[in-house]
Amino acid sequence: MMRSMIKTNTICGQNEALLLDLDFAEVLSEITVDEYRFKVTLHPWIDGRCVLWFRRDNEAKPFEALGRFTQFDKRAVLFFIARYTTSRELREEIEARRFERQLDSLTHDFFEDIERHSHADKTTAFRNLFNLDEQIDPQSLARRRRILARKFHPDAGGDNRKMSLINEAYDFLSQSMTAG
What we know:
Blueprint: H1 14-19, E1 27-33, E2 36-42, E3 50-56, E4 64-69, H2 74-86, H3 88-103, H4 108-116, H5 119-130, H6 138-152, H7 160-179
Antiparallel strand pairs: 1-2, 2-3, 3-4
Helix pairs in contact: 3-6, 5-7, 6-7
C-alpha cells in the first residue's frame, strides 16, 4: 500500500540530493522517533510532491533526503516513518541502494589513488571505498562487498585489478575488526 505512494526509486538520486536543500524548503511536518529526526518539506520543483528528510540525533551530520512522496499525506508519511524506524531490513535496503548509487560516481582514478596509498593511509582509503563510518559492522561490510562485486567483478564486466583491490580492502577491514 505504501509503496504506491512513494516513487519507485524511494531514495533520492545522488544528483537530486545534492540539489535539494533543506534550508530553502518549506517544512510541512517534523517528527522525532527514537534516535531519528524527520522533516517533510515541499519538493522545490514538482508541485504537490514532498521530500522526507532524516538524520540520527546522536550524529552531527546534516539532514539527508530519504525519499519522495507523490503528495503530502501525513498518514502515509507517518506509516513510512514507522516502518523505517522499526524495520532493520528496510533501513538496510535503503542504505544498500544509496551505496549502489555512490558506486556509479567512482572513477578509475579513485581505484588508482587507493593503490598508491601507503599502508598507514589504506585504512582511510578502504573505509572510503566501502563508505564506512567509525564502527565497522561485519554484516554491513559483507553486504557492501557483495554490492561492489556485482559491479566490479570481471564476470560482471569489471576488471581484475579493481576486484583484487576490493578483496584486499575487505580482508584488511575484516582483520582490523577482529584485532580491534
